[in-house]
């Protein structure tokens, strides 16, 4: 049972990443539109103001309709095959639910009267794509996406013979879903208000916990990174009402990210909402891990420092600029889990301090994100210099604490290994597989994807392949066939096994790796 639960959480966390990968792009473009539409930057009366507003108007429909985005993205991400059909059926399903739920509220005379959408704020109802329905935020999309995926995976290959042949496969999936969706539209109109009360209580607890709540959020968000489940911690705070609700110019925005962006594009907002406390977890990416890397270098054996420098510099640059930390964090995660615990605790602590000092910054990513979002917002509205000041304290703190613990506990962090760490090459792997397990080695002219697939146990062992910002996420049939040394020899900085869910950490190049693997598997 435990393995099934963990496996299910892994699959869901992997699927949530599918839509999340695209949202930062929309956010950055909105930040650009804010710059162009700000009179203090481009000048009063500039034609760029209307250009900025035009760009922003084109992007906002994505962020205020995240329910449908998550519904389609999760269904596609969880589908084992025929992903395009799963996405289309998810769209149909979302629309069916909206129509049915609206009609049920009408028949039961539960519709709340309103003149403008903002009148529905706090009533438990909202308007989505013109339908007045129960207000479930992104959770509606998440629930429907999971339901669609489960039905799709069960029936998408079911065929009928004779006259009913046209109604098999994915058409059957749609037919099975219709009564399920109609039932959910009725049931959730009664169940969700109770769930919403629980969510409100959770939010109130975290908010009342003050700095302790922020610390726990930051700690768990960092500590769970090795499992890949950290998305289950931050996503609800970033994109649902767990992370806050705020009405701006007649529209209600849910989640820390959407609230920040809505305020960013509204120059009348003088001080950003406190929900920004859930956006501070990027500080360690820009500052803390730089201090950790310096500690690794200072405590390394003299003969290893040149080689270590070549590993650390690109890893640090990736963390600072792009906010992708795994290439650096995985250099010590498996060597010293205790150091990872300390790292997670310090991250949560510095997030709490930053919020306590009054910062309202956008800081989940690296330096590029930080500049793009906070500079257009201005110092007065975000107090971003506080983030920088705390970060400048965080860097030496990480350095001294990491150096002390490494030396005191004689931790075998990078550069301090007793034996030379040898990364397997493609040739090493071919020799190993041809002499060892009896499996056929990759041909001489095969590319890196062949080695990766072989390291994952071969084509027959791979069920699904996905990726997030930095990891290749693979569902395999038999985890015992996965060859970790071989995968690390392909340039991976770490391999994580959670049951049959395998995560191979490649950093920013993961998209190219995913494409190569997909092409190889398609042959």
From TrEMBL:
Mind telling me what this protein is named?
A: PTS system, glucose/glucoside family, IIBC component
GO molecular function list: kinase activity; protein-N(PI)-phosphohistidine-sugar phosphotransferase activity; protein-phosphocysteine-sugar phosphotransferase activity
| The PTS EIIC type-1 domain, residue ranges | 3-418
- Superkingdom of source: Bacteria
Q: Which InterPro entries match?
A: Glu_permease_IIB (IPR036878), PTrfase_EIIB_Cys (IPR018113), PTS_EIIC (IPR003352), PTS_EIIC_1 (IPR013013), PTS_Glucose_EIICBA (IPR050429), PTS_IIB_1 (IPR001996)
Which taxonomic lineage does the organism of this UniProt entry have? Answer: Bacteria, Bacillati, Bacillota, Clostridia, Eubacteriales
| Cellular component, GO annotation | plasma membrane
Name all PTS EIIB type-1 domain ranges: 446-523
* Localization in the cell: Cell membrane
Organism encoding this protein: Clostridium polyendosporum
The way this protein sits in the membrane is described as:
Multi-pass membrane protein
Keywords for the protein's UniProt record, in alphabetical order: Cell membrane, Kinase, Membrane, Phosphotransferase system, Sugar transport, Transferase, Transmembrane, Transmembrane helix, Transport
């Amino acid at each position: 049972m435990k393995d099934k639960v963990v496996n299910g959480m892994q699959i869901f966390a992997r699927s949530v990443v599918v839509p999340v990968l695209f949202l930062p792009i929309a956010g950055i473009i909105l930040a650009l539109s804010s710059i162009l539409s700000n009179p203090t930057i481009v000048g009063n009366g500039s034609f760029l103001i209307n250009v900025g507003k035009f760009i922003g108007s084109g992007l906002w429909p994505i962020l205020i309709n995240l329910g449908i985005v998550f519904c389609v993205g999760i269904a596609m991400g969880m589908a084992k095959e025929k992903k395009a059909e799963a996405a289309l059926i998810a769209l149909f399903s979302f629309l069916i639910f909206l129509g049915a739920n609206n009609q049920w509220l009408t028949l039961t005379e539960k519709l709340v009267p309103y003149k403008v959408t903002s009148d529905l704020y706090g009533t438990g109802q909202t308007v989505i794509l013109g339908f007045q329905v129960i207000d479930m935020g992104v959770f509606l999309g998440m629930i429907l996406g999971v339901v669609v995926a489960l039905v799709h995976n069960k029936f998408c290959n079911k065929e009928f013979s004779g006259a009913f042949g046209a109604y098999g496969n994915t058409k059957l999936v749609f037919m099975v879903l219709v009564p399920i969706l109609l039932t959910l539209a009725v049931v959730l109109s009664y169940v969700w208000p109770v769930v919403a009360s629980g969510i409100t209580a959770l939010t109130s607890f975290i908010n009342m916990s003050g700095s302790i709540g922020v610390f726990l959020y930051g700690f768990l968000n960092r500590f769970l990174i090795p499992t890949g489940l950290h998305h289950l911690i931050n996503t609800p705070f970033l994109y649902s009402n767990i992370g806050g609700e705020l009405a701006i110019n007649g529209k209600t925005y849910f989640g820390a990210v959407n609230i920040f962006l809505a305020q960013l594009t509204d120059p009348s907002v003088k001080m950003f909402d406190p929900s920004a406390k859930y956006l501070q977890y990027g500080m360690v990416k820009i500052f803390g891990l730089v201090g950790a890397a310096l500690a690794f270098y200072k405590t390394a054996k003299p003969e290893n420092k040149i080689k270590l420098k070549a590993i650390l510099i690109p890893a640090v640059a990736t963390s600072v600029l792009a906010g992708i930390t795994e290439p650096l964090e995985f250099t010590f995660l498996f060597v010293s889990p205790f150091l990872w615990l300390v790292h997670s605790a310090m991250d949560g602590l510095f997030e709490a301090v930053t919020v306590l000092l009054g910062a309202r910054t956008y800081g989940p990513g690296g330096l590029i994100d930080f500049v793009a979002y906070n500079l257009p917002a201005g110092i007065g509205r975000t107090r971003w210099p506080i983030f920088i000041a705390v970060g400048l304290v965080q860097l030496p703190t990480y350095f001294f604490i990491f150096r002390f613990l490494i030396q005191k506990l004689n931790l075998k962090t990078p550069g301090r290994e007793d034996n030379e760490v040898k990364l397997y090459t493609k040739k090493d792997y071919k020799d190993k597989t041809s002499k060892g397990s009896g499996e056929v080695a990759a041909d001489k002219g095969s590319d890196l994807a062949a080695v990766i697939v072989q390291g994952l146990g071969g084509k027959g062992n791979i069920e699904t392949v996905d990726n997030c910002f930095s990891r290749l996420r693979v569902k395999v049939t038999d985890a015992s066939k996965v060859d970790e040394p071989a995968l690390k020899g392909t340039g991976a900085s770490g391999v994580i096994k959670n049951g049959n869910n395998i995560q191979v950490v490649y950093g920013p190049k993961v998209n190219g790796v995913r494409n190569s693997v997909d092409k190889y598997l398609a042959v």
